[in-house]
Amino acid sequence: MIFFEVILPVFMIFAIGFIGQKTIGFDVKALSKMAMYLLSPVLVFRTFYVNEFSSDHFYIIIYCCLLCFSLIIFTYFIAWVRKYSKSETCGLILSSSFMNNGNYGTPVALLLFGTVGFEYAIVLMVIQSLLMATVGVYYAAKGSPANDGIRSALMSVVKMPIMYGAVTGLFFQWLSVPVSRPIMQAVHLVADATIPVIMVILGMQLAKITIRTTAKEKLLYALSIKLIVSPFIAFLFTLVLPVDPMIKQLMIIMAAMPAAANTTMYALEFNTEPEFVSSATLVSTLLTLFTLPLMFWLVL
């Protein structure tokens, strides 16, 4: 039943973007930038302005960082055992250490937990976006011929509009800055449109990915880390984090999300195993049709 109530509606929206891209064709990069630079900051601003920052948010930040670096360390171990090159190692990290909490995770959280879970999922999305814009860009650049990870990562952080939305929302809340009703109505209109738009864009991105000669063994490692190891590590963290049971469930489910679409863009930009990272994104997204219902059954 939960498949039809949660997973199927999400994939139906993905399908709209997928079919539209295959039949009409859109400038996906431009649309993605539009969602990232114009829509997402407004949604994040509303989240941080309306919801008071609590200890739960602090623990979510700690959790996201611990999970990300735990997965990177685990991936380094696999790469060391298999004697992968620097580029192969960085490609494996991009495809296994960052989850799609934005296009995929937030609508799932909304359908599963309602508006309360959705608000916490937005915070997870912001932290995940920051990690991808720093740690993710670093490894994408490290695996490229230019190898300019630190400078590229720092520049990417400066250009991250989501962070400005979060900071502005927090300052407005802490200083009790009033926002007039007409302005807040405009904020609600844009914020409410953000999630459906980025879901359609993910469908378009998936339509542009093709699985070519991908190393099957390496792909299996990436999928196993992303869909099995990641939620298991998240479960271990939830045993010690003093947060609400609903947030613990959300943490585990978000950790079971497929590879993030943004890492595909980073891999393409820096030429760090782009075909492999793209294949891992596509296959992991399709596999969640089966893995997420199982995760819901285990967690909820």
Task: Characterize the quaternary organization of these chains.
Answer: single chain
CATH class: Mainly Alpha
Number of domains: 1
- Going by CATH, the architecture would be Up-down Bundle
Count of DSSP H/I helices: 12
Gyration radius, in Å: 18 Å
Strand tally is 0
The helix/strand series, from N terminus to C terminus, equals HHHHHHHHHHHH
Q: How much of the polypeptide forms β-strand, as a percent range?
A: under 5%
Gap between N and C termini, in Å?
13 Å
Shape: globular
CATH overall fold name? Na+/H+ antiporter like fold
Query: Roughly what percent helix?
Result: over 70%
Mean pLDDT: 88
Largest sheet: none
Structural class by secondary-structure content: mainly alpha
Flag low-confidence runs.
none
Family: Belongs to the auxin efflux carrier (TC 2.A.69) family.
Protein name: AEC family transporter
Organism: Sutcliffiella horikoshii
Membrane topology: Multi-pass membrane protein
Descriptive report:
- This protein is mainly alpha-helical and 300 residues long.
- The chain has one domain (2-299): Na+/H+ antiporter like fold.
- The chain is built from twelve helices and no strands.
- The two termini are 13 Å apart.
- The mean pLDDT is 88.
- Belongs to the auxin efflux carrier (TC 2.A.69) family.
- It is found in: Cell membrane.
Could you name the key traits of this structure?
300 residues, 0% strand, Na+/H+ antiporter like fold, 12 helices, mainly alpha, single chain
